[in-house]
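Researcher: Good morning. I'm working through a list of sequences from a screen, and I'd like to move beyond sequence-only analysis. For each chain I'm collecting a predicted structure so we can compare shapes side by side. This is the next one on the list. No need for commentary yet; just the structure.
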Amino acid sequence: MTRVIHTGDTHIGYQQYNSPARRSDFLSAFRAVARDAIDDDVDAVVHAGDLFHDRRPGLPDLQGTLGVLRELADAGIPFLAIVGNHETKRDAQWLDLFEDLGFATRLGRDPTVVDDVAFYGLDYVPQSRRDELAYDFEPIPDTADRAILVAHGLFEPFAHATWDTDAVLGESTVDFDAVLLGDNHAPGTETVADTWVTYCGSTERASASEREPRGYNLVSVDDDVSITRRAIETAREFVFVDVELTGDEGIDRVRDRLSQYDVDDAVVIVTIDGDGEPVSPAPIEEYALERGALVARANDRRDLPDDAEDVRVSFADPDVAVTERLRDLGVSDGARTIDGVVRDDTIADSNVRETVSRRVRDALGSDGLEFSDAPVLADPNSDEPSTTDSGVESDPPADDTDGVTTPDETGPPSSQTADESESERETGNPSTRPAADASTSDEPDDGVPAEQEPTRESDEVSGDDSDDGSPNGSADDDQVSIGDFA
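Model: Good morning. Structure tokens for this chain:
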């Protein structure tokens, strides 16, 4: 019998709620899964994508991940994985680096055999490009009796599905006994065409909506396939406090409900519903933190009347405002003419210098423009008076190295959230790799703020078509082989 741990959506590097402790939690959860694998002496750990939260994990996240993978390697337990949408890069993947170091195997169209089970991989592919896929896998070797596909995406028959599981199984050149999935953070198991299809769920709560305990699957393959759900006992506790207000109840009632919970070192989520008085989130969150919570968030879901006055806002034409300001400063006609050329949208940037030079020459030749020294304005933040003395030293140049990082040249910069739409990529060896497409952002999915990031169920619905019109398939055939996306 072959026994493997099926995990995924570890999202290492996610600093949820801007909390360094939460960032550590995501790595700790992955470490807990690996140590369970070692304690149980399983035959492999299978990761179904989104090992990292984004394509540019921090160095501590990489070091921590390598440390976990080294523990598995030292125990003789192979780490088999695919690429999810969060970590996808345009060229080589982090998983390729781990494979080069001998700590991982990237699954693809060629089988990887563990005992008598052949494992195949299907990286994430955006919905806009799935019609081009041909699910062409290499045959099961004689040394294997069973075949399992590992894939990343939102598959039927689960919620918010955009990928036809029945079509994948029907069009594949291999008859699979099970499909191990990642991307949907909610665990679940179903059958499609007499084949087990299962999500392991995320190992940490990436959203307050993920209330179920976090965990992974233990998959046993013998004459049949059995799937058992296991919880991660060491995961950070989330305390959900739901308060239904009635009548004239308000903040005192919310405080009373919150005081009934042990919130020490927990993430506390307070949800207010019903009627009653308006409740400001800040005092509730402060109260939870005073009682020892690591993080506190209060959400008032009620539709309360808005007593704010109707404020009308108008904006002046910026060009007119600049012109008037220059006139007030006493800038000469010549200088204002040059300024007008610089700000003229009808003049190409490449022609500004030539146009200014020509107009200055024309003006000087005809004595038609007056040029004079511009006034020196006082620094509004300084107590010193302005001066026109030429001997006064100017301010030193500003330091432009203020911590702004340069985007990854190998892939598009993250936005996102989430975001955050997904970008296309081109990767690896088309003869051996399955589809791995669409990058996500450093921000949580699809532009959603970190503290409100939804499960991956909603991510794909809102943003996996961002690279329409930029297909990355074969130019030789209308139908694209699964390997052409690698």
